[in-house]
Structures
1.
Amino acid sequence: MEFSFDLLWEILPQLLRATVVTIEATLAGFAISLIVGLVMVSGMRARQRWLRFLSRFAMEFLRATPLLVQVYFLFFVLPGFGITLSPFLTGVTALGLHYGAYAAEAYRAGLESVPRGQWEAAVSLNYSRLAAYRHIVLPQALPPIVPSLGNIAISMLKDTPILAAVTVTELMFVANEIGSERFQYTEPVTAAALIYLVLSLAAAPLINFIDRRLRPEETRA
Amino acid sequence: MMPMVRFENVTKRFGATVVLDAFDFEAARGEKVVLIGPSGSGKSTLLRMLMTLERIDAGMVMIDGEALWYVRDGADVEPVTQAHLHHMRAKVGMVFQHFNLFPHMTALQNVANAPRHVLGKPKAEAEALAEMLLRKVGLGDKLSSYPARLSGGQQQRVAIARAMAMEPKVMLFDEVTSALDPELVGEVLDVMRALSVERDLTMLIVTHQMGVARALADRVCFFEKGAIVEQGPPEQVIDDPVHARTQSFLRAVRLT
């Protein structure tokens, strides 16, 4: 077997264009998962028992079923109910829902790390529930979970190839296409692997940076 | 005159444990009442009910002539809405054993945040108020310090300033000097003594330190098993107690 750098060079522009789609899908999916997670964790902490049950069920369901199945479900089953989404939208929605369940778990851990005494102080100062979350609880709950959220983002990046199943032209889809057109898989797949590696490695310092920005030195115990 | 705080026939259980049983208590406007007694005797629970951190199981609790909780036959006679809770909480402030300062805010922000975001005061006004109160408790030079950089005594003084910024009519002090090193008790006690000069401010103080009781109390109440066994001016209850249980409790406290 030979490795052709000429071929690599030739297909690189195509792969980089597909990388943009991969990054877009990751960012959009991540943004959706942050919101989905927030909704789910709010539901799990709601006063209404049925809402707590529903949120917990949704979370367990999303975590216990494969992402690929969820993508297929959104793409092939929803149109039967009159809801048709583009492949890209289908993909990022599935990513957002699936990882939203993990984000919810991270939020929950963060919220539970805030001591009871903080809530009691908030009650004693007559904060509303919303104001207590906003000014007292969330600023303390979020910084410790930035690393977990970062891990979610990286996992999500590595799961974007699943979107190829519904014809999203992301990196792996294009690499595979090149391979089957030219009967040369080594170069495109190797290149794809390297690009994923670079993206994952680049994400880590970014997360560290955000982590550090969110914690003023004085408050670090 | 109408009492500032009133408990009528109040029962409180934690599971099978009865903390208060048909309990009656009153504090007049501006009165400084110190509650002493063994742990688990219901003193802190009484404060926590007034702050709405605990519900009652039966009876009525009134603050400033309005029912906070009114429970009969296991149901609220007066419905307890969120609006009602906020209305009642505005009358009460509380200082905790472990300070419970907000660790992500400076001393100034700790005091200014609630006036700003709960009372809706403009930022400049809230911060001016906070600065004034922090100067009052001797922390004018610590405005921009985070709690982690303050001693226990300083943190507790910030907590007192924070509670006072909401202009409560009743201040609750729940073992506020118990978590402090002995040499830091004095500075917190000084701040509380300065507060006690305010004639209209009702203060309910739970403590295990007789020095605190002696310094602040108009009246000392000795609690045991959810009931007040003995009460009166500090010189009587602390120095010349009548009840055998009060005597043995005070002996035990002095030894520690």
2.
Amino acid sequence: MAVKKKLNMRKRYEVLTRGMGWDTTYQPMDKVFPYDKFEGIKIKDWSGWEDPFRLTVDSYWKYQAEKEKKLYAIIDSFAQNNGHLNVSDGRYVNALKLFIQGVTPLEYGAHRHYAHLGRHFRGEGTRVACQMQSIDELRHCQTQLHTLSHYNKHFNGMHDPFHMFDRVWYLSVPKSYFEDAMTAGPFEFITSISFSFEYVLTNLLFVPFMSGAAYNGDMATVTFGFSAQSDEARHMTLGLEIIKFMVEQHEDNLPIIQGYIDKHFWRAYRVLALIAMMQDYMLPNSPMSWNEAWQIYYVENMGALFNDLSRYGLRMPKYSDVATAEAEHLSHQTWSDFYNFTHAASFHTWMPDDRKMDWLSEKYPNTFDKHYRPRFEQWREMEKAGERHYFKGLPQLCQTCQIPMFFTEVMSDPMKISRRVSMYKGDRYHTCSDGCKDIFENEPEKFIQAWLPVHQIFQGNCGGADLSDVLKYYHLNEGEDNMEYVGSPDHKRWQEWKGEDKQDETATG
Amino acid sequence: MSLEISSKVIEPIRQTYDQVARHIGEGKPASRYQEATIGLQPTTNFHYRPLWDPEHEVYDESRTAIVMKNWYDFKDPRQFYYGTYTIARAKQQEVAESNYAFVEKRDLLESISHEVRQKVRDYLVPLRHVEWGANMNNCAITDFGYGTAITQVTMFNTIDRLGLAQYISRIGLMVDGNETTSLESAKEAWLNNELWQGLRHAVEDTFVLDDWFEIMVAQNIVMDGLIYPLMFERFIDELSHEGGATFAMLTEFMTDWYAETIRWTNALIKVTASESDANIKLLSEWTIKWSDRLTEALMPIGKAAFAGDGDVAVNEVKQQLLERLSKQGLDL
């Protein structure tokens, strides 16, 4: 009997994933892989890529199937037992509305565009890594839809998330960010999504939602979060690996990569304004404030990461200091804005109650009592007097991040609106910050194309001139999906389920 | 007798997401497959043109000449979404794993003749490169295709093809006692042996097709429709007659996979063809173009792999493929 050689795991993995590709000769390689050179990133040796996942397909099927079986068992039992009745308060579900409208479609976009990379990077190992991430992202999109399906049957606002993603004004913030990355070259996309988003900022996205779910009795979403965690860990590893790989390949790559990191840190960070408000205001029980999360996950953890990366010549993203100064204002300013525009949003807003106000004062000692509490107390008084207000006009949007221009000069005068203006080919373009202005001015030809929701409404491309027409175009059911939480159909149903007294109507948040 | 557990009944205010209800009808409960599939892909209000392809939007129907009124008319008969897909494959890999372990434990390949093992090295192991090409092509369709009803299936297919390439590679390792010699000689043959050049040329030409639906036809309908019956059915049968039935066990995953996947490709062609005469014309042209090209490319491999009647085998599988596709509405 012949003696059989044993292959160790590493060698076995290598044999099963490398050497299947070849340099094409009947078609030129540049035609087979047409997109991986135009950015100017130089790759001398694709085989220098180390696979972070090191999973053969059979093991992938096996592990993932186990996770899926467990997750769906919980989802089934959640629906069967009306698990939505166990959440801390009906208000909490608004965080899920924001999630399914603004995050789930991003998972889908990631799925499709990692397939773009999975086909078009020249390196075999890099392609396989992107394919694995692509199918994982499809998983996240689909499991989120299934997890939230039960909520959709009992709450308003989450009934048409993909239609809304393509149209609704505040959803153009995440949509334009992702499409910015998808329409860029493959190296910019992977820096944006795998590094800036999935590595640098991922905890700031997932912790608020998943810990938020845990703190508010949402068993289904917590289970999804745990189930996705091991996938996310793989994706984070990919993010770090790709940055090191690109920088190590050629010294000319460094300034390009640093530029991508600067740009996409700021783009992704601006999207997180929506998360900051969700975390501090929508969660009846908050595991931590936005500012605390920012200090831990960004200032400390990413500070340490970029210390490590400094040996590659990389530095902290530009305008990190502005984002840190903004951390004490971000959620309050964003919530104020949405409170004013909830008549055009597919979720509810409300004013915080005393307990929440005190929590905010404690978490934001430098800013809340000074700048925001008086405003909110006044609005609460107006509500009590039956004068709950909505802003009647349409806001000006930042040409880059597409958020209404409500951010302020946090470095100098936090009560002064921050506005920047750029001229391009005789037209004037407005941006909300130095970060967004730089991005615009580096690629004006790209950013003048932006589908700005307010401009589109004025141009008559969103169903008509009246708010009602626009809401119909959004598929937003007036009086159900939008406006104040107190007195909304969601609120009324919640009170019926919980047997709460109608007197409760003034006790908010 | 069943237990009656009383629980609070709460009437839902809707049955499913609107994008699903619009497709299946209001007020109907939706399946998990439907909720995971219908209406997920963005369709409008794209912000920026791709720097790498300014002629198209991020998602663009005009990336194929096939025209559909509704890209969610396609249904996967297997109803695969991520969960059902991975669970199905996990079961299959368990069977495959136990087959491979059994063959190794009993040293079943030792008793097979040198000639049969050499045939496996020469004609089966190089197919790992064909699977790798299929992986790239399915990934391309996932990238450029339109509508989740198609692109999620090609995503699963992308990963399947990598898995299939890995199973073939394992067979290559097993015939050589875990040495990589047959993998290396198969690659050498794939790159330089005259026998394989027609096929490699055709595969490389599919990499540069502009129309993703033509890639679909060339790869998933025609190439697979010729190679799987020829190599994983007929060739393996022939090896079995020559004492190599163990290889039938090691390729069970492939034959099961093909039998299952063909249900989807048949449904895909049927729905696309029934949409319009223009679609029938395109699909038929592509089918004829690629089946002629690939039959010719496979002819030398068939002649060498089958004792004496290789050309008959190649022509028969082509005939069967064309007959099957005619039944789905193509004009061949």
